[in-house]
Amino acid sequence: MLKPLVLAAALAAACGSARADEPIVGTWRLSNGETVDYAPCGAKFCSTVNTGAYKGKTVGTVEGSGRAYVGTVVDPSSDKSYEGRVEIQGDRLVLTGCVAKVFCRSQTWTRVGEAG
What distance in Å separates the CA atoms of residue 91 and residue 22, rounded to the nearest whole number? Predict the structure, then answer.
């Protein structure tokens, strides 16, 4: 009885994990020179600031695959959360945060090093 439960749990965990080979995974440089890492966190991808005043702070959680992701982005200076989407365009990441899906702002980040 225990074996089927362990197998089911292992399969559920494998199916619910974000993949490390997704294009979003890696280090990205912002226009101000700071860097952010996107890495798998459970079934999603989390972004964490690497440098500057907000080093170590998680500033987004998105899900998706390929080159399109959606989720939440956080402005680290205000701790406000916004609906967000991320699009990968080669070595560029276009991050868009919106309030009520109407008022949106975008930033373009550049990949640091090799693709994930």
Answer: 13
